[in-house]
Amino acid sequence: MIIGTGIDLVDIPRFERTLARTPRLRERLFAPGERSLRLPSLAARYAAKEALIKTLGGSDGVHWIEIEIASEASGRPHFVLSGTTAEVVAARGITRLHLTLTHDAGLAAAFVVAEGEPL
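The structure corresponding to this sequence follows.
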């Protein structure tokens, strides 16, 4: 059963200016394995984290660096959750998260679908 969906869109040039203005933001928003990625990939991952928060209906108990977006060998993105963020997802009855990312023409987008059984 679908428990929730979320979508987010990021203006990549605006995101780049924000990161330039606040250099420590990279450490606050991204897990260590994400920080060295190119800007379009970072923007897409930021969109994915925002989309996940929308899927959950809010950010209570969710921490940005506990949400990592990794890629399978095929390139397919997936969430790697840890800490209280993983607990929040499990507490909502979510057993599977689907994620798609895209970036083109100065925009990055992410779409998330949460599956499970509502509690």
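The beta strands are 2-11, 67-71, 77-81, 94-104, 107-116.
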